[in-house]
UniProtKB/TrEMBL annotation:
GO BP field: proton motive force-driven plasma membrane ATP synthesis
Main location: membrane
Keywords: ATP synthesis, Cell membrane, CF(0), Hydrogen ion transport, Ion transport, Membrane, Transmembrane, Transmembrane helix, Transport
Family matches, as HAMAP family: ATP_synth_a_bact (MF_01393)
Keyword Metal-binding found: no
Membrane topology designation: Multi-pass membrane protein
Function comment: Key component of the proton channel; it plays a direct role in the translocation of protons across the membrane.
Matches recorded under InterPro entries: ATP_syn_F0_a_bact/chloroplast, ATP_synth_F0_asu, ATP_synth_F0_asu_AS, F0_ATP_A_sf
GO cellular component: plasma membrane; proton-transporting ATP synthase complex
Annotated protein name in UniProt: ATP synthase subunit a
């Protein structure tokens, strides 16, 4: 659920507990990654094995959608997945709320995906060729292409926000009504749903990026012909 009360202010800007939690997650991930990758070796220990497994699984998922550019997209998509998993599960910690249960956070993530889609598309196709696909197959479809870009970005933000917020709200209501005995299976449901929502958001981001880069292959095929 959203927490909008400011914990403190930096000038005119109010810093809410959601912002503090988000900063804490980013700082924790940064410190953890730095510590975990300081002493990598050819004979990996348990932590390195776990990290390699996460990277391999993420790379395999990306390869299933865009195999030619799996390594290139790996840092962005994997970071997105890891952050979303932790952010979605943060609501299980007492007195904390999942940042992704706040529409401002999910809107920021959706905007990041929106900008990344166009960056990858322009980087691989050139700005003229990339923008030309908005006029294909006819310039009359330009308004519909633009509406599609806006609506899918909004849907990306609202979908994640709605699912995580409703999940926390249901957990709170059940806890109030049924007490402390029932939430154990509900806890498992929360974990599963948090993982599923993180995976869906990351896969949609990957599919959108792949769609922006797809015209590159069409261009190559036309040149070969």
């Amino acid at each position: 659920m959203e927490t909008t009360t400011a914990a403190f202010y930096i000038g005119p800007f109010g810093i809410t507990s959601i912002v503090i939690t988000t900063w804490g997650i980013m700082l924790g991930l940064g410190v953890f990654c730095w510590l975990a990758t300081r002493n990598l070796s050819l004979e990996p220990g348990p932590m390195q094995t776990l990290l390699e497994g996460i990277v391999s699984a993420s790379e395999a998922a990306i390869q299933s959608v865009l195999p030619e550019h799996a390594r290139e997209l790996l840092p962005f998509i994997t970071t997105l997945w890891i952050y979303l998993v932790i952010a979605n599960l943060t609501g299980l910690i007492p007195l904390l709320h999942s940042p992704t249960g706040n529409l401002s956070v999910t809107a920021g993530l959706a905007l990041l995906v929106f900008l990344s889609v166009h960056w990858f598309g322009i980087y691989h196709n050139g700005i003229r060729h990339y923008l030309k696909h908005y006029l294909s197959p006819t310039p009359l479809l330009l308004p519909f292409h633009l509406i599609s870009e806006a609506t899918r970005t909004i849907a990306l933000a609202v979908r994640l926000f709605g699912n995580i917020m409703s999940l926390e709200l249901v957990a709170l209501l059940v806890l109030i009504v049924a007490g402390l005995l029932v939430p154990i299976p509900l806890l498992m449901l929360h974990i599963v749903e948090a993982l599923v929502q993180a995976y869906i958001f990351g896969m949609l981001a990957l599919i959108y990026v792949a769609g922006a880069m797809q015209s590159q292959y069409s261009k190559k095929e036309n040149n070969n012909e």
